[in-house]
Design brief:
There is one protein chain. The protein is mainly alpha-helical. It is built from 14 helices and two strands. It has a two-stranded antiparallel sheet with strand order 1-2. The chain is globular. The two termini are about 35 Å apart.
């Protein structure tokens, strides 16, 4: 009966696990003051694991063969350019922001989020332990569930809204988040834009999430440069217009080329 109930309500069951798991961990961290006492990435480690756990649980309880779903999401035989694009596109957008912020008399400095010799380790940890594992739930499970009733574009935006809401408790304690209105606007635009691009990417790979995991991990690594003092720095929010806006520009190009499906069928067939 339990499995039958989950099978009839796959999306609500998945979201119940995902939000209950993450927000439950957030409540523990807030009540014990761990946000301030633990390193940034350790203190947010457990919350994202509700996504793969929720996906596997719901798939197991539904009429979707678990082995078939796992073989689909773990596909990896894709052209090298797809992997390179997934990793280097976020890095390019991230480094463009400080460079533009320094144009016209400002300065750019090297300011990595971790010591240089640990940057690759930092990236790998995001692939196997931190943000990257979210993709097994958001894009590996939820995206195709929504696409049974929506276009790729609408499904990607719907996933983005839920992804945004899932992060909400972090704005009230996590050191990397702040309830500042400008930051909230930047983050909202960014999350919905990148969710659209990730939704297109997982359709190109016919449900394989490994490239999306790498893109997510590269995004989390962030910029290794810091720029300020340029003519644009005091006129507009470079992180909003360039950082978040770049993903919307990519999404707009995809819509212009392929409509609400975001990807050409010929590409999907050639990579499948």
């Amino acid at each position: 009966m339990f499995r039958s109930l989950i099978n009839r309500h796959r999306v609500p069951a998945f979201l119940l696990v995902v939000f209950g798991w993450a927000w439950g961990w957030d409540a523990v961290y807030y009540s014990l003051g761990w946000w301030k006492s633990l390193p940034v990435y350790i203190n947010s480690f457990p919350r994202q694991w509700g996504l793969p756990i929720g996906a596997v649980l719901v798939v197991w309880a539904s009429d979707i063969p678990l082995r078939e779903w796992l073989s689909r999401v773990f596909q990896w035989r894709f052209p090298p350019w797809l992997y390179l694009g997934a990793v280097f596109l976020p890095l390019f957008i991230g480094e463009a922001q400080p460079v533009l912020a320094a144009l016209g008399g400002g300065s750019v400095s090297y300011s990595p989020p971790a010591p240089p010799h640990l940057l690759f380790v930092f990236f790998l940890l995001n692939v196997v332990l931190f943000g990257g594992v979210e993709e097994f739930g958001w894009r590996g499970f939820l995206q195709p569930q929504f696409q049974e009733r929506m276009s790729v574009l609408t499904a990607s935006l719907a996933v983005g809204v839920l992804w945004w809401a899932w992060h909400l408790p972090l704005f009230f304690g996590h050191p990397n988040f702040t309830p500042n209105p400008l930051f909230l606007a930047e983050y909202t635009v960014f999350v919905l834009g990148i969710s659209t691009v990730l939704g297109a990417l997982v359709n190109v790979t016919d449900g394989g999430v490994i490239p999306a995991v790498l893109m997510h991990a590269a995004i989390n690594v962030g910029s290794i440069l810091e720029g300020s003092g340029g003519i644009l720095d005091g006129i507009l929010s470079v992180s909003l217009v360039v950082g978040a806006g770049a993903w919307w520009l990519i999404a707009a190009v995809l819509v212009g080329l392929y409509g609400r499906s975001l990807t050409p069928k010929s590409m999907i067939e050639s990579l499948s």
